[in-house]
From TrEMBL, chain A:
Residue stretches making up the Ribose-phosphate pyrophosphokinase N-terminal domain: 6-103
SMART domains (UniProt xref): Pribosyltran_N
Organism whose genome encodes this protein: Parathielavia hyrcaniae
Keyword vocabulary terms for this entry: ATP-binding, Kinase, Magnesium, Metal-binding, Nucleotide biosynthesis, Nucleotide-binding, Transferase
Keyword Magnesium: yes
Name this polypeptide is given: ribose-phosphate diphosphokinase
Automatic annotation (TrEMBL), chain B:
Catalytic activity, EC: 2.7.6.1
GO biological process assignments: 5-phosphoribose 1-diphosphate biosynthetic process; purine nucleotide biosynthetic process; ribonucleoside monophosphate biosynthetic process
Catalytic activity: D-ribose 5-phosphate + ATP = 5-phospho-alpha-D-ribose 1-diphosphate + AMP + H(+)
Functional pathway: Metabolic intermediate biosynthesis; 5-phospho-alpha-D-ribose 1-diphosphate biosynthesis; 5-phospho-alpha-D-ribose 1-diphosphate from D-ribose 5-phosphate (route I): step 1/1
Protein name per Swiss-Prot or TrEMBL: ribose-phosphate diphosphokinase
SUPFAM superfamilies the record matches: PRTase-like (SSF53271)
């Protein structure tokens, strides 16, 4: 029993909240956390928090019919409510930190990042006055851009309608194909061989609004970019009133620096290490693989800790198309030897599963016998489950930093789940009593 | 042209209410900026910027989608923060229907003051200015340390009433004590009678007993309020007014949130019409409810944007609705 402490759970991971509360020997704080019919969150905290040390557990995961942004707003509202309710200290416990890993490239529907050549395809529509003028006093702003815009917009739409009708690009139209008059001639009239791919490359995971996305084109001459929300999320948590943040295996350790309040980044490493030592036969002969260069540090830490070999997969960014048939794997390169050995892929997060399934394919090709994938956070979004089912990976091991019940039901024995609630319970206890957190990870 | 005048209005639209953004853009004679918001498969919102906002005067239009307020709010915050990173000169959040406006006080122990949280979040993200319409409580402006322009739908309503009814036949009714000020203001402008309904509210979204104060006999009773959510209040108020001898009852409401079974409730009510502005996207509700009429608020918003950009006074809009 820990005194003067309140553990408040969000809706994102009730099982973890229960488990942590059990270990701390206290009941979870009574609260009402639902939505009004208007869509606004409704939060009522029913137990007193005055002068208490409050820990709010909410993971950055939306699934099972709930939404990530709802959970995040709920968290901010709960923090704020505790603050206005005179809590002594409010700690946000985020096993998976939301928005910590934002890709800087648009994604297409299947979840694979796109290396698009947008500017090339758009360049044909340039008029001489669509080049942004060098700004100078007295130089009129580029009104000519509006003209260019119309053409690209119209093109985007016509090509889209053509796509629906099954016309495969302006270059390869067969006379048998059905066309719907205007759209067909509209595309032809402009006489710009705009490849379908440039339209397709803008499709993303927003399924509801496909036509809108299809029509999206950055202004000619401007390189589109995707906003990174990591700093914003950190600022919002602080602004809501969080005095302390506990999270696990941040994708970028730099995220810690976004905060003005202390951040305790716990490690899933000891759990993964223990799993390797207890569940993988002959693990001393295995090879630890990092599926990309960014995760090399994480993987080497484990490899060094248990004294096994290490290899690395290096992603070669292909800018121009290659003629090799399996182009996907052509852009991946293995550094190290895995022939006839057990491979253990280590990464912090599996989202669409694109990286690890491709890595597994490469490893199998290089002669790996069995492939394990050990990951801290198993988000499995999009068609990750199917992709992993069909992949060469023999076993996926994740922690329950996000709810895994549904994933376990779908993946069956291919998925092993490690429990992180003892780590979080111990961290909460130590933070509350002002004891060291680092000793938890000293002997790893 | 001086260097200070070089910046232009950049209108960025969120996903919640593109129709309104288009209307505002058309009114201003500009195009909506090329940006796109999406949700990744892991449900994180991503915002892609397709044109430069450097040193521009950015206006981000984002309303609330009924049933999905948090998604829109998060998107707005990300958009603001992206424009801040992209060196916009000034960022104005145009939020026709301010989210969480009703959670504006600590009415019981440990109740969150979410409106203040939203205000703080908007400023943290980097908003320099807020434009909104008919705040539930104008005190919410005090939650901000940046300027907030609270526009009114009242001039549009006044015009609607003058164009459609003889003002001497009308009586303006406030469905609750809190809205009395809003309703008396309209009654004063029209020089009509005023009545008030007092209600008891045992729980949120549930309406109790109602008592009418004032006379509505043989008059057209016009209910005035700032938002219609589940419409329980309005429909019960309309019934009370009918019982007290009103010839017909209609309602003028700024924000048509219309959540839950609102449409069914309205269709089965004695209300002859519900007039809302398009601050909130209505979707197919207009088709589903023949009683629903929509007043376009975009001229007021567009004019406010134009005046804000040019550094002109906005107070003219508090009494006049641009045509």
């Amino acid at each position: 029993m820990v005194r003067n402490i309140v553990v408040l759970g969000g809706n994102s991971h009730p099982a973890l909240v229960d488990s942590v509360c059990n270990m701390l020997g206290l009941p979870a704080c009574n609260r009402i956390l639902t939505k009004f019919s208007s869509g606004e969150s409704r939060c009522e905290i029913q137990d007193s928090v005055r002068g208490k040390d409050v820990y709010i557990i909410q993971t950055g995961f939306g699934g099972n019919g709930s939404k990530l942004n709802d959970h995040f707003m709920d968290l901010c509202i709960m923090i704020s409510a505790c603050k206005t309710g005179s809590a002594r200290r409010v700690t946000a416990v985020l096993p998976l930190f939301p928005y910590s890993r934002q890709p800087d490239l648009p994604y297409k529907k299947s979840g694979a990042p796109l290396f698009k050549a947008g500017s090339e395809s758009g360049r044909k529509d340039y008029t001489f006055d669509s080049v942004p003028a060098t700004p100078a006093p007295g130089v009129p702003r580029t009104a000519g851009l509006i003209n260019g815009t119309d053409i690209t917009n119209r093109l985007a739409k016509t090509v889209l309608t053509n796509g629906v009708n099954g016309v495969n690009g302006a270059g390869s139209m067969s006379p048998v194909k059905q066309t719907n008059g205007e759209a067909y001639f509209g595309a032809n009239g402009v006489a710009s061989p705009m490849p379908n791919t440039s339209i397709g490359s803008y499709t993303t995971h927003d399924y509801q609004n496909v036509s809108h996305i299809g029509a999206f084109q950055a202004r000619p001459g401007y390189k589109q970019w995707v906003a990174q929300a990591g700093t914003l999320v950190a600022n919002l948590l602080t602004c809501a009133g969080a005095d302390h943040v506990i999270t696990m295996d941040l994708h970028d350790p730099q995220v810690q620096g976004f905060f003005d309040v202390p951040v305790d980044n716990l490690y899933g490493r000891p759990l993964l290490k223990r799993y390797i030592q207890t569940h993988i036969p002959n693990y001393k002969e295995a090879v630890i693989i990092s599926p990309d260069a960014g995760g090399a540090k994480r993987a080497t830490a484990i490899a060094d800790g248990i004294g096994v070999d290490f290899a690395l997969i290096h992603k070669v960014m292909e800018r121009r198309p290659t003629k090799i048939t399996d182009r996907q794997n052509a852009s991946m390169m293995l550094v190290g030897n895995v022939a006839d050995r057990v491979c253990i892929l280590i990464d912090d997060l599996v989202d669409t599963g694109n990286t690890i399934t491709r890595a597994a394919k490469l490893l199998k090709k290089e002669g790996a016998t069995t492939i394990y994938a050990l990951l801290t956070h198993g988000v499995f979004s999009g068609d990750a489950i199917n992709r992993i089912k069909a992949s060469a990976i023999d076993k996926v091991v994740v922690t329950n930093s996000v709810p895994q019940d549904e994933h376990r039901a779908l993946l069956g024995s291919k998925l092993d789940v490690l429990d992180i609630s003892p780590i979080f319970a111990e961290a909460i206890r130590r933070v509350h009593h002002g004891e060291s957190i680092s000793v938890l990870f000293n002997n790893d | 042209m001086s260097a200070e005048m070089a910046n232009e209005i950049k209108l960025i639209s969120g996903r919640s209410h593109p129709e309104l953004s288009d209307k505002v853009a058309k009114r201003l004679g500009i195009e909506v900026a090329r940006t796109i918001s999406l949700n990744y498969s892991n449900q994180e919102t991503s915002f892609t910027v397709g044109e430069s906002v450097r040193d521009e005067d950015v206006f981000i239009v984002q309303s609330t989608t009924t049933g999905d307020v948090n998604e829109g709010l998060m998107e707005l915050l990300i958009m603001i923060s992206a424009c801040r990173t992209a060196s916009a000169r000034r960022i104005t959040a145009v939020i026709p229907n301010f989210p969480y406006a009703r959670q504006d006080k600590k009415d019981k122990s440990r109740a969150p003051i979410s409106a203040r949280l939203v205000a703080n979040m908007l400023q943290t993200a980097g908003a320099n200015h807020i434009i909104t319409v008919d705040l539930h409580a104008s005190q919410i402006q005090g939650f901000f340390s940046v300027p907030v322009d609270n526009l009114y739908a009242e001039p549009s309503f006044l015009r609607y009433i003058r164009e459609n009814f003889k003002t001497e036949d009308c009586v303006i009714v406030s469905p609750d004590a809190g809205g009395a000020k809003r309703a008396t203001s309209i009654a004063d402008h029209l020089n009509t009678a005023f009545a008030l309904i007092h209600k008891e509210r045992p729980r949120p979204n549930v309406v109790g007993r109602m008592v009418l104060v004032g006379n509505v006999e043989d008059k057209i009773a016009i209910l005035v309020d700032d938002m219609a959510d589940t419409c329980g209040t309005l429909v019960k108020a309309a019934a009370v007014l009918k019982e007290n001898g009103a010839k017909s009852v209609l309602a003028l409401v700024t924000h048509g949130i219309l959540s839950g079974n609102a449409i069914e409730t309205l269709n089965g009510s004695v209300l002859s019409a519900l007039v809302v502005t398009n601050t909130v996207p209505l979707g197919d509700k207009v088709e589903r409810c023949p009683k629903l009429r929509v007043i376009d608020i975009s001229p007021t918003i567009a004019e406010a944007i134009r005046r804000t950009h040019n550094g002109e006074s906005v107070s003219y809009l508090f009494t006049h609705a641009p045509v």
